[in-house]
Amino acid sequence: MPEKKLFYSRRKVRELEQYPVQAPSRGEVKKDVRAFYITTTLPYVNSKPHIGFAMELIRADVIARYKKLMGFDVFFNTGTDEHGLKIYRKAQEEGKEPQALVDGYAETFKNLIPLLNISPDIHFIRTTDSHHVSAAQEFWKRCEKYIYKKAYKVKYCVGCELEKTESELVEGKCPIHPNLEIEVIEEENYFFKFSEFEKPLLELYEKNPHFVLPTSRLNEIREFVSRGLQDFSISRLKEKMPWGVPVPGDEDHVMYVWFDALVNYVSTLGWPEDKKTFNEFWIEGETVQYAGKDNLRQQSAMWQAMLLAAGLPLTKQIIIEGFLTSGGQKMSKSLGNVINPIEIVEEYGAEALRYFVTREFSPFEDSDVTKERLKESYNANLVNGLGNLTSRIMKMATSYGVELTDTEKQMHYYSPSENKKHEMFDQFNLAEEMNNIWFDIASLDKKIQTEEPFKKIKIDPESAKKDVHYLLFHLLGTALKLEPFMPETSKKIRECIVLNKSPETQLFPRKD
Predict the structure, then answer these.
(1) Pairing assessment for the beta strands 367-368 and 324-326 based on DSSP bridges
(2) Quick check: pTM over 0.90?
(3) Does the domain spanning 10-30+371-499 belong to CATH 3.40.190.10?
(4) Do residues 372 and 489 make contact, with C-beta atoms less than 8 angstroms apart?
(5) Which of 87, 202, 373, 374 is the most buried (most CB within 10 A)?
(6) CB–CB of 358/485 below 8 Å?
(7) Is the CB of residue 272 less than 8 Å from the CB of residue 135?
(8) pLDDT at residue 4 greater than cutoff 50
(9) Position 316 confidence tier, pLDDT thresholds 50, 70, 90
(10) Is it the case that residue 32 has pLDDT exceeding 70?
(11) 3-state SS class at 19
(12) Which residues contact 177 (CB under 8 A, 6 or more apart)?
């Protein structure tokens, strides 16, 4: 296999040394700074977080960090969805008021931010926040032209909080929540005229072939819409299910949870009052929503139709992830087969979990996850791979007195001033980007084995030092490439290089 080009070429380094103009400082941006908005979905707070939400949060964080490094102003949103029938019933089961229940669970989700080393400037919205409630009511008012009331009877999955047609059921069960009984709801509700948006949605998908990634999910939602859209209920009778945002002008109804929750994507920006922030990030900026494949319909069809009805700009792009499975079965809180991300962090650390999520899990398809697989990957790729490589290079560098020049130490990989293209980031294929980084790691390992500078130092010190300088420089490149993915690891390696010292402790202690 031919050696892959690593970071900057030696010719580039020589050019920089010949013309020693100080490289742009980290964080320098162009004058025409662009705005970028990214959001996760909001998980229900009827139980503790599971690794599926941690995966989504970490991936969105990697993209947010990358965009910041590339000179964008970034608005990063996450939070908790706190209304609906599942929440109400859970509170009844535990003998609590719904607000007390969601307060406790919301805190556990918020605690994931520092635990997973998520960007500290992230915005965290709760759908019980007073501003969100008023924004949802304002959004309802702007959609009133497309809202009407009727009596109806429908089959309903409480797990999905969605109506289900016979064609969507398997042996009378929801395929996503087969442990839950399908319920029949019969009452008078408000409805949203979803059926009026079939043509504009199909035009949206046709004009924007990258509106949903991957393409298979775009094809899936296009097929769903082309079969014909049915109006959907957007309220519940308060006497039966009181836990929700009150419908404007009708005290007998509360909003259907999906209608309320989806509005968070704009209410978090201060909409409708904060026109400046809304215009900067939602109207003029790039807007990206991360979601699981069970959210495809809600994010790429229902929400877009609601935005059209309210006269607001549509989302620019939606990224759909696969499920995490265990033994081929979807991980689900209701099925009780989830992996707790807090336990993974306690055993391996946040940086290792960020590695697992971005490299070992498929970015778009289902991934089967076991604790055994995580341990095997940790030892092979972090302990024996990156950790061992860093230790070996820094030991030779410090022992042989090899350091990078000040110019080299100021190099950066993600920067608006470098005008590089990062195609895998633009395609949201984080796993492929990480594979490229680990190819570089393997190439450096191979160079050590081939050149053997630890032996050459005794017979040809000058050549050995050149080899170590090459290794040190490209180790810095690897650390810089890792910055959005594993920021603490990147920082530790860069500090070792700049200060010319070996790591004080192992980057990744072995797990037996």
Answers:
(1) parallel
(2) no
(3) no
(4) no
(5) 87
(6) yes
(7) yes
(8) no
(9) very high
(10) no
(11) coil
(12) 157, 158, 159, 160, 332, 334, 335
Of the pLDDT bands very low, low, confident and very high (cuts 50, 70, 90), residue 500 is very high
- Assess whether pLDDT exceeds 70 at residue 336: no
CATH 3.40.50.620 fits 35-338, yes or no: yes
Distance between CA 482 and CA 55 in Å, rounded?
A: 17
The answer to whether residues 362 and 431 touch, using CB atoms and an 8 Å cutoff, is: yes
Backbone angles phi, psi at 206, to 5 degrees: -70, -40
Query: Exposed (0-12), middle (13-18) or buried (19+): which is 455, by Cβ within 10 Å?
Result: exposed
Cα 424 to Cα 163, 286, 365, 478, distances in angstroms: 37, 17, 16, 16
Sheet of strand 286-292: strand arrangement = 123-126, 73-80, 35-39, 286-292, 317-321, 212-213
∠ Cα 501 505 511 (to 5°):
145
Taking the mean position of all CA atoms in its chain, how far away is CA 274?
25
Amino acid found at 290: Y
**Is the Cβ–Cβ distance between 236 and 253 less than 8 Å?**
yes
* Lowest-confidence pick of 29-33, 218-222, 276-280, 418-422: 29-33
